[in-house]
Specification:
The structure holds two protein chains of two kinds. Chain A is mainly alpha-helical. Helix content of chain A is about 75%, strand content about 0%. By secondary structure, chain B is an all-alpha fold. Chain B has a single domain (about 5-90), classed as Helix Hairpins, CATH 1.10.287. Chain B has three helices and no strands. Chain B is elongated and about 50 Å long. Chain B starts with a helix and ends in a 13-residue tail after the last helix. The chains are: A mainly alpha, B mainly alpha. At the A-B interface, helix 2, helix 3, helix 4, helix 5 and helix 6 of A face helix 1, helix 2 and helix 3 of B.
Chain lengths: ~180, ~100
């Protein structure tokens, strides 16, 4: 993970040479394989806490992918909000609902194959259309990292109305969660 | 780097998340799978932002992260309430609406 982050920061400084492109590609495929393995383990494991820890791996890899794409602020937000806040919230959920810490047999539906069929069909359709539409399209080799200042400028000018709506939504969700979960 | 390698990675994560939502009956595990789906969408947004060279993709990914935080807060409150009323977070047992 640290190697991924530092190589991402390395090529973010200027446009990429061939070697850097090669390294970035290699890093991407390694961490993508790790993420897919962790995601599959997450939906199949019979231990709730292990599932949360596998989700942590996936979220960290997604942050590394943001850095590979030059979206530094999104990567920092991912680490702060997802790995920090949402994971703690989910683990609190596991704790408060007294799910067993350890093996549990009764986490899945009986008809798992229907879910598997739906997922495989969805993947087939999506990968067919993606390969059909975006095959051989390369990211621009001279792309620059998107700086935090530009993100802030964009949020507070072009996207000011959605930003205010999001603020209200967060406030409403906060109050709503307290009201729903309060004992009275 | 190809645009497609990011899009296919995101599609795979999305499908695994869909499988999780469909097969899990523990409420907390369903919420975790939904987080997986939202992250897959975010990768798409950031990848297209890097492809077009505009900032909008990253900004929308940030908005999605904010909505996901709100979603998981309310979702966990609901799961907690189900647990308190029924002593179980098995969502297949919450079937009061079934005739």
């Amino acid at each position: 993970m640290i190697a991924a982050l530092s190589s991402g920061a390395l090529f973010a400084q200027s446009s990429m040479t061939n070697t850097e492109e090669w390294v970035a590609n290699g890093v991407f495929y390694v961490i993508a394989a790790v993420a897919l393995f962790a995601a599959i383990k997450m939906v199949t494991t019979s231990n709730v806490v292990h599932a949360a820890l596998y989700l942590l791996v996936v979220l960290a890899v997604v942050a590394a992918v943001y850095i590979l794409l030059g979206a530094e602020f999104a990567a920092a937000t991912q680490v702060l909000v997802y790995l920090g806040a949402i994971m703690v919230l989910l683990l609190f959920g596991v704790m408060l609902t007294r799910a067993k810490i350890g093996h549990e047999d009764d986490l899945d539906h009986e008809q798992k194959w229907i879910g598997g069929l739906v997922a495989v069909l969805l993947m087939a359709v999506m990968s067919y259309s993606l390969v059909d539409e975006f095959d051989t399209i390369e990211l621009p080799a001279d792309r620059q990292p998107q700086r935090t200042q530009e993100v802030a400028d964009s949020i507070f000018s072009t996207f000011i109305v959605p930003f205010e709506a999001i603020s209200l939504l967060l406030l409403a969700a906060l109050i709503g969660a307290v009201v729903v979960a309060r004992r009275d | 780097m190809f645009l497609n390698q990011f899009l296919l990675f995101a599609a795979a994560l999305f499908c695994i998340g869909v499988y999780g939502v469909l097969t899990r009956k523990n409420g907390v595990l369903m919420l975790m799978s939904i987080e997986l789906i939202l992250n897959a969408v975010n990768i798409n947004l950031v990848a297209f932002g890097a492809y077009t060279g505009t900032i909008s993709g990253q900004v929308f990914a940030l908005f999605v992260i904010a909505v996901a935080a709100a979603e998981v807060g309310v979702g966990l409150a609901i799961v907690l309430l189900i647990y308190r009323n029924r002593r179980s977070i098995d969502v297949s047992e919450a079937d009061l609406l079934q005739g």
